[in-house]
Amino acid sequence: MAKKAINPTKSLKIPQIIILSAKICAFVSTKLATKFAARLFTTPIKHKVPKRELEMDNKSIQKIVHVPTINKNVVTYQYGQSERKVLLIHGWSGRGTQLFKIADELLQNDFSTVSFDAPAHGKSEGKTTIMSEFIASILEIEKQFGPFEFAIGHSLGGMSVLNAIKDGLQVNKAVIIGSGDIVQDILDDFILKLKLKKEFSDRLRLFFEDKYQLKMDDFSAYKATQKIKIPVLVIHDNDDPEVPVKAGIHIHENLQNGTLFLTDGLGHRKILGNQTVIKKTLEFIKNS
């Protein structure tokens, strides 16, 4: 019997045991529930490298890079030999080889790629991380492997690319795929999935702002785009169940030099291997 196709409109669900644990914490103490939610929010799932990514994993030169600003090490992947380099950034619970189909196409077009396992992801050390550590890793990798002509980011990696450009990453163009936008919306959605009261979304934001001494909304993608002048291609699927398409549309509306490309029926991850998406990405970065 043939396997049923995975429905791209079906969102990832939080296990019932975790939802129950969150509710018990909330019953005992709002402070306890906030800490529990914060731990969950900052703990990615480490997945085993799937077979489809093994070729990139095996053929890339891997190196451990220290990121001094966050005092963490990340594993980097140099794929290909060309001096024309493209930086690839995966999303939450992703890996440095996750954009392998895009990377393979880039190699065939005389580019090489550099990617990395973000802190607490893939082969990199640690159990928890947050977007500011993605951004710090990008900026350190630019110092050690750059310059890069282009940057391509998926999901949280897309938000991180935009923030890194705002903070000084030098690239000619950027492509973001399925990128999140407003940090508060992301927190709201997370708390909704945990089935906690909406007030915990604000509690979570304040908890992070106190812990990291950062304003969370400063990392919202649309705010970064307002300071970006280079061309940016925004790709998003109309049926993305994890990051609503309104995020991509809003990011595009705030770009000074943006292009929006919407797809249908590809969801949040399948979009990375879609040939039309890859072709659009290559055309965008190759056209001067």
From TrEMBL:
Superkingdom per UniProt: Bacteria
Domain Peptidase S33 tripeptidyl aminopeptidase-like C-terminal stretches: 223-285
Keyword Hydrolase attributed: yes
A GO molecular-function annotation: hydrolase activity
Domain AB hydrolase-1: 86-194
InterPro entries on file: AB_hydrolase (IPR050471), AB_hydrolase_1 (IPR000073), AB_hydrolase_fold (IPR029058), Pept_S33_TAP-like_C (IPR013595)
Keywords: Hydrolase
Record has Hydrolase as a keyword: yes
Protein name in UniProt: Alpha/beta hydrolase
Annotated organism of origin: Flavobacterium panici
